[in-house]
Amino acid sequence: MYEFRGDTLLLYDIYHGLPDTDYGEMLVGGTAGNLYGTWTYTGCEYDKEEDETECYEKNLQYFLRTITFSKGKAEINYKVYFDRYVEDHSDFMNSYFMSQLFNTLGGNYPEIYLDEIWYMEASSVQATAQKIGAVFTSKTKSNATFELGGKTYTVNVKHMDMSLNREGYFIASENKEIQVEVSDGITTCTGEYISHYMNADYCKAEYKDNLRMDEWEDSNLGTFIAAERYRSNNEDDFEQCITGIAYKKYDPLDGYTYAKAAKTLAKKGYNASDRESRRERSLRKWAKYAR
């Protein structure tokens, strides 16, 4: 479905035979009132129900999308500035992954997601390092050495690949691969992550456990199941290894005596059996990471 607002073309998706008026892409460049011609996506969306516009102009620095409408035909063209995108997402030592790594090495709750290495969060890295007392002695975009708790750690991105997906519905999305090593000079922990959009190479039984599946219904209530992407990682083993070389082990009861914990829980309305079971669960989790 489409409509015009002044010289702007609004395109709405159709779900179950009805337009989704919560999301209308805004395009400009054509002739007002005439669908035929070439229209350029503005990076903005219009919510017809709320009469609100929201723009994501930052995304436009990486791609330009145009649609050319003619009788019985619509042609979509993408211009992707992929080199710029890769450059802006490759300062790995200033990524949110590093904040998670610092937290785990510093004895906080162990939680590391390898795909967070593509999310740049320099301020978070700086704040977390300061909080736990980590000091960088050397640092580039792909490797770093830092001191923490009397130990010296190194982080090295051994392999990174980002490529543009050129097939299927998710064209112009990125495929990602990363291999990163973290060492305390004695033990080296290796994390690996792969995320590829579907192609013919992954249409094999051996990959079925690593396929991300989507399910939806069409307007005739037919059900479709499709594989969107192949994803593989060793995050659990990597996280356990990082916990093993942390200068301070995670303790869910750190700073709490049992009496203090019981008093705090009592104020929140938990009974004695609740407190005991929660404490036991915490101790079991602590034991897992204390090995």
TL;DR?
With about 290 residues, the chain is of the alpha+beta class. Helices cover about 25% and strands about 40% of the residues.
Structure description:
This protein has 291 residues and is α+β, with helices and mostly antiparallel strands. The chain has 3 domains: 2-80, no CATH class; 85-245, no CATH class; 258-290. Helix content is 23%, strand content 40%. The chain has helices at residues 82-88, 96-105, 122-132, 235-245, 258-267, 272-290, and strands at residues 2-5, 8-15, 18-28, 37-47, 52-55, 63-70, 73-80, 135-139, 143-148, 151-164, 174-183, 188-197, 211-217, 223-233. Strands 1, 2, 3, 4, 5, 6 and 7 form a 7-stranded antiparallel sheet that branches. A 7-stranded antiparallel sheet has the order 8-9-10-11-12-14-13. Helix 2 (96-105) runs parallel beside helix 3 and helix 5 packs across helix 6 (272-290). It is elongated, with a radius of gyration of 25 Å. The model is unreliable at 271-291 (pLDDT under 50).
